[in-house]
Design goal:
It contains eight helices and 16 strands. It is an alpha/beta fold and 256 residues long. It has one domain: Spore Coat Polysaccharide Biosynthesis Protein SpsA, Chain A, CATH 3.90.550.10. The strands form five sheets. Strands 1, 4, 7, 8, 10, 13, 14 and 15 form an eight-stranded mixed beta sheet that branches. A two-stranded antiparallel ribbon has the order 2-3. A two-stranded antiparallel ribbon has the order 5-6. The chain is globular. The two termini are 18 Å apart.
């Protein structure tokens, strides 16, 4: 199974870091948050990734092209230029780095990846800035059991996020950026059937608006409630919180 990770946004609310690097490469504990997210998936059997690139996508390509050198000891013979990488315990991931446009919206980025998926291939989909101790195997089993086109992992969070309302497990309404109240919100970590791509009109489509709202109206969106840890990394305050948890050895999302 493949996991698609959005990694193309400008990260303007974290401009202290994203002026020189894309947000998915902002580090927690000396490793990019993208690395943390991929480990969450890989620890649960998902080790093929399609990374949707945009802003500073070349920097993400350079990171993966140099992945072994960055994450291992190396020896360089300056007389000959010969390099030896002393390999350690490295992940057996397959990573596809795909340019999905500089200004493409979230839904548009997903839509551009249609050719990277099989026609009947269930896949996972998330953002490059959020971590959780989510049970992805359970989310997949839940998705397969209900037989709908889309599953969204929902989490509890303050009102600055959009809200999701339920009828049983069925998602009744999906509202982006509610103004007041607390409730279930979009935590990312979707499980999707390829048919959801038909709900995307083009590059200007925002996934969290028309596609997800229309899936909910059609009765094709079901919510998997995650009661554990979840956090996005939209701001420097949230970045520092994640850094503190990691440095104290109390990072709940470290399930690998």
């Amino acid at each position: 199974m493949k996991a698609i990770i959005l990694a193309g946004g400008f990260g303007t609310r974290l401009s202290e870091e994203t002026v020189i690097k894309p947000k998915p490469l902002v580090e927690i504990g000396g490793k990019p948050i993208l690395w943390h997210i991929m480990n969450i998936y890989a620890s649960q059997g998902v080790d093929e990734f399609i990374i949707a690139l945009g802003y500073k996508g070349d920097v993400i390509k350079e990171y993966f092209l140099n992945f072994y050198a960055i994450n291992n000891d190396i020896s360089i013979d300056l007389a000959t230029g010969e390099q030896t990488i002393h390999q350690g315990n490295q992940p057996s991931w397959k990573v596809h780095l795909v340019d999905t446009g500089l200004h493409t919206m979230t839904g548009g980025r997903l839509g551009r990846l249609r050719d990277w998926l099989e026609d009947d291939e269930t896949f996972m989909f998330t953002y490059g800035d959020g971590v959780a101790d989510v049970d992805l195997r359970a989310a997949l089993a839940f998705h397969e059991a209900h037989g709908k086109m889309a599953t969204v992992t929902t989490v509890r969070a303050p009102a600055r996020f959009g809200r999701i309302s339920f009828d049983g497990d069925q998602v009744r309404t999906f509202h982006e950026k509610a103004e007041a109240g607390e409730g279930w919100i979009n935590g990312g970590f979707f499980v999707l059937n390829p048919g959801v791509l038909d709900y995307i009109d083009g590059d200007e489509t925002v996934w969290e608006r028309e596609p997800v709202e229309n899936l909910a109206r059609a009765g094709e969106l079901v919510g998997y409630r995650h009661h554990g840890f979840w956090s996005c990394m939209d701001t420097l305050k949230e970045k520092n919180l994640l850094e503190d948890l990691w440095s104290q050895g109390q990072a709940p999302w470290r399930i690998w």
